[in-house]
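Entry type: protein chain
Record version: 2
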Amino acid sequence: MTEQLQIHCKALVIKWKEHKDIKERDELFFCLLPYLIKWIRSILIRWSIVIDEHEVLSLAWQCFMHGLNKYQKMDVPLPYHFHRYSMYCLYIEFIAKKKLNEVSEVEQVSYPDENSIEYLARKLPCRVRNVLQDVITQQKDSCKTAGYYEMKKMLKNVIKEMVG
C-alpha cells in the first residue's frame, strides 16, 4: 500500500469516526478491498482452506468492519492494523469454530461409570488388563502359570460382584 493511499485512508477513517458517514466507510472499503482480498487469500492458503470468490468478498467485508470498529490508536499503521484484524476474524471464523465443534463432539462421548468394567480395565496395569480381557471374552488360557489362574479367578469374582 502506497504512502499516499495510507494517508488518504487514514483521513477517511478519521472522518468516519467523527460523522459515521456511509460514503466515507464505503470509499475506505473499496480502497482497502484489493489488499483485504490478498490478505484473506494468503492467510487461508496457509491454513489449507479454500473458498470461492463470493465468500472471500463476504469475509473481506466482515474483516473490514471489525477492523474499522476496532481502529482506535491512529499511530498504528493502517495496513498492519487491518491485516492483523483480518487474521483475527478469520481465526474466529474458521479455526476457533472448528475447535469448538471438536470440543462439543468430545463432550457428547459418554465416559464409563466408576462402577463399570471399562473403568476397571483402564485402572489396571497392562498385564492384568490382558487377563481381564481373557475373562471377559472367555478366551482359553493363553498362559498356564499359577499366577495367571489365580488372577483370572480373582477377576471373575470381581466381575461377578460388579455385574451383580
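Comment: The two ends are 75 Å apart (CA to CA).
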